[in-house]
């Protein structure tokens, strides 16, 4: 991937600082390609990697990864045609049933995903869904709170990846299950906000099978010179489109076979 880099080291550092400012102080920025129209996907991951380094230097712990833009609904919503990955840290995690403040977010939206917890390390390239399932300790339901940091909802894949694929918060819950005990292709999910159903989908929406999304994460990590360590928490991507939330909203994601995950949003 490094062969397609067009940004200088200084540009990469500057853009990571710009994205970090938007994330930590909750203000919107113009999409990065306005200033760097020739920016490549490799450039975007270089910015994301620099952002991850900055957070880890500040004491954040890397606990896993997420697949982004893996469902047709999400690709259509975002106007892109390739999935992406982003990193997850301990400071993004929120407990089940918690009150999540939106005053430090810009455009918060929720989406439900199947999360995988790995018992073995995985390496790409050419990682397969079968290898993912063999390396999985268990799966559990999760809700990701994503937050686009770009003004006017104008974005493109390059800017989104550099912004850590819109990662903001996540909540895991429900009941953990072994992969051999459930059919991960056919899990139905429903999102309710304030008791009203707002979205529904089936886990096959995620690249046909959520384990395919985890394999994709491993293979993109290989291009970045990284592996997926044992113990990682990995979210396999949105099963439904992302639904906007505001203070006062109570959200419940109900997963067939995996129970439900709930949270509420406050100022």
From TrEMBL:
GO terms for cellular component: cytoplasm. It comes from the Bacteria. GO terms for molecular function: 2-oxopent-4-enoate hydratase activity. Residues 94-265 form the Fumarylacetoacetase-like C-terminal domain. Keywords: Aromatic hydrocarbons catabolism, Lyase. Pfam families: FAA_hydrolase. Belongs to the hydratase/decarboxylase family. PANTHER family: 2-KETO-4-PENTENOATE HYDRATASE (PTHR30143:SF0), ACID HYDRATASE (PTHR30143). This is 4-oxalocrotonate decarboxylase. It comes from Pseudomonas alkylphenolica. The lineage of its organism: Bacteria, Pseudomonadati, Pseudomonadota, Gammaproteobacteria, Pseudomonadales.
């Amino acid at each position: 991937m490094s062969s397609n880099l067009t940004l200088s080291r200084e540009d990469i550092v500057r853009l990571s600082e710009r994205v970090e400012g938007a994330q930590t102080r909750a203000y919107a920025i113009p999409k990065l390609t306005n200033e760097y129209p020739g920016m490549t996907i490799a450039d975007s991951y270089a910015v994301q990697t620099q952002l991850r380094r900055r957070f880890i230097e500040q004491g954040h712990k890397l606990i896993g990864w997420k697949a982004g833009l893996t469902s047709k609904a999400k690709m259509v919503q975002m106007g892109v045609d390739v999935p992406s990955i982003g990193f997850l840290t301990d400071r993004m995690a929120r407990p089940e049933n918690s009150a999540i403040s939106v005053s430090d977010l810009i455009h918060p939206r929720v989406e439900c995903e199947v999360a995988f917890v790995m018992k073995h390390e995985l390496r790409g390239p050419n990682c397969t869904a079968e290898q993912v399932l063999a390396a999985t300790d268990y799966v559990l339901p999760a809700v990701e709170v994503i937050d686009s940091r770009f003004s006017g909802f104008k974005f493109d894949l390059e800017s989104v990846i550099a912004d850590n694929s819109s990662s903001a918060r996540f909540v895991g819950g429900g009941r953990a299950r072994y992969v051999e005990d459930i059919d991960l292709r056919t899990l139905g999910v429903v999102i309710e906000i304030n008791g009203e159903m707002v979205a529904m989908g089936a886990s096959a929406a995620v690249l046909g099978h959520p384990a395919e999304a985890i394999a994709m994460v491993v293979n993109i990590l290989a291009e970045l010179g990284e592996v997926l360590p044992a113990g990682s928490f990995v979210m396999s991507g949105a099963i439904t489109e992302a639904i906007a939330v505001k203070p006062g909203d109570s959200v419940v994601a109900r997963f067939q076979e995996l129970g439900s995950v709930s949270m509420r949003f406050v100022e």
